[in-house]
Write a structure and sequence with these properties.
The chain is α+β, with helices and mostly antiparallel strands. The chain has two domains: 174 residues, no CATH class; 209 residues, no CATH class. 43% of the residues lie in helices and 23% in strands. The chain has 17 helices and 15 strands. The protein is elongated and about 85 Å long. 30% of the residues are buried.
């Protein structure tokens, strides 16, 4: 009877795994080198030089927690899996017909540059070896900025999904380390940072109201807090031009999320910070100064703010069709629609405009363009990809039918269903 094979020791398993990894690394390096150079350059590289490339190799992006980062193990592990999957699935082009994953770019491609930067003078002068290594070096280096920019954007997007002003903001800072703490070679490290957003209570009209400090966090630049000069709200005084912190009432954050109801909270609140960074205040045709709120660069509403206790406090958010905005008043004048009419038609929130039937109906477009809020409809093509909700109604038909019924009602013949409900 044949004897059973002994179970491999942990040391043996590690040795086998390392040999397998090395073979895969060199196999990919061969493919990359010969594909970029359009000929077999890899076989001309001395074996000992390939050994050095492997031992000094770059490693792919690795997620680490920064000191003091308050994040659950669930989110940490989820981020690691998500980033790893993105690096393996997304491609970058190095030459015509040569695409590799970002994971291979950060490991194989960047490691290949070692031959040119450190060992070029030691290369044997055979065939097109030196010319090929220079070509490879240039092609890989030419894609570096694209790779870094795409990675920064991806890491920012991942944090966007977890960040919210009600709780905490997250961001990454990137580093390249040769520390032995992470093993041999060079390591691309992405340190995850977090901060719990400051909460205060401000007394307004005799009532204490909870508010959150307005800011956002970005990969690379880190945590940024919004500040505004009180003078932009027509506040007078010797200190009116000194920037102060900006806070937003919890009610206003809730209203933002309700009105921009087809997008993730992170995208909505980041746009809040961006709107304040380059704040534009409107005074004409409105009861109080209003700060424009822009979403993907398009004005979709206003922030009503006051100067209270040494800070600027955002009291509420008004969607652009709201009767308290200049455009909302024009829309009321053009159509006769009151607050409850707009609520019934659901045109008091973004999801109503996140549909092709609104953008393709010229009559509806004319109505909103005449009121100064046609950009809501035009925005559809730009934001549809990022939305998580679309209206399940034909809003254009509903609106036009409602306006026709209202016109007949004013002539004394028919009462609209909405009016009966009132």
């Amino acid at each position: 009877m044949a004897q059973r094979k002994k179970k491999q020791s942990s040391h043996q398993q590690q040795k086998i795994a390392k040999a397998k990894h090395k073979n895969e690394f060199l196999s990919k390096l061969k493919y990359l080198t010969n594909s970029v150079c359009k000929e077999d350059i890899y076989s001309l590289i001395p074996k000992e030089m390939l050994e050095e490339v492997y031992s000094c190799r770059y490693h792919t992006v690795r997620i680490e927690l920064a000191e003091g980062c308050n994040v659950s193990s669930h989110i940490h592990n989820l981020l690691k899996r998500t980033v790893s999957a993105w690096l393996k699935s997304e491609k970058i082009s190095l030459a015509k017909g040569v695409e590799i994953s970002f994971d291979d770019y950060y490991t194989i491609a960047l490691s290949s540059r070692y031959i040119k930067t450190i060992k070029f003078i030691n290369l044997p002068d055979i065939g097109n070896l030196k010319k090929g290594i220079e070509t490879l070096y240039d092609m890989v280096g030419g894609a570096l900025e694209e790779a870094q920019s795409a990675t920064v954007l991806a890491l920012f997007a991942f944090c966007l999904g977890f960040s919210c002003m009600e709780k905490s903001l997250y961001w990454f800072k990137l580093d390249l380390s040769a520390s032995e703490d992470y093993g041999e070679g060079l390591h691309h490290l992405a340190f995850l940072h977090s901060v719990e957003v400051e909460s205060i209570n401000i007394v307004v009209d005799g009532t204490s109201r909870p508010a959150k400090r307005v800011g956002w966090a970005f990969t690379g630049s880190g945590l940024l807090w919004a500040t505004l000069k009180p003078s932009i709200l027509n506040v007078k005084g010797p200190f009116a031009d000194i920037p102060v912190d900006v806070y937003i009432q919890s009610h206003a954050l809730q209203r933002l999320n309700e009105r921009l109801d087809c997008f993730e909270v992170g995208t909505i609140q980041m746009s809040l910070y961006e709107s304040l960074r380059d704040a534009k205040v409107v005074f004409e045709n409105c009861d109080q100064p209003l700060i424009e709120y822009k979403f993907f660069g398009t004005k979709v509403g206003y922030l009503r703010a006051d100067y209270v206790d040494g800070v600027i406090l955002i009291r509420t958010f008004l969607f652009i069709t709201n009767n308290g905005t200049p455009e909302g008043k024009k829309l009321e004048k053009v159509t006769g629609l009151q607050k409850l009419d707009k609520k019934y038609l659901a045109i008091d929130r973004m999801s109503a405009f996140n549909s092709s039937d609104m953008s393709s109906n010229p009559e509806v477009r004319e109505i909103f363009e005449s009121a100064g809020c046609g950009n809501l409809i035009s925005l559809y093509k730009e934001i549809a990809l990022f939305s998580n909700k679309q209206s399940n109604q034909n809003i254009s038909k509903l609106l036009l039918d409602y306006l026709k019924k209202a016109e007949v009602f004013l002539q004394g013949d028919v009462v609209p269903e909405h009016a009966e409900a009132e």
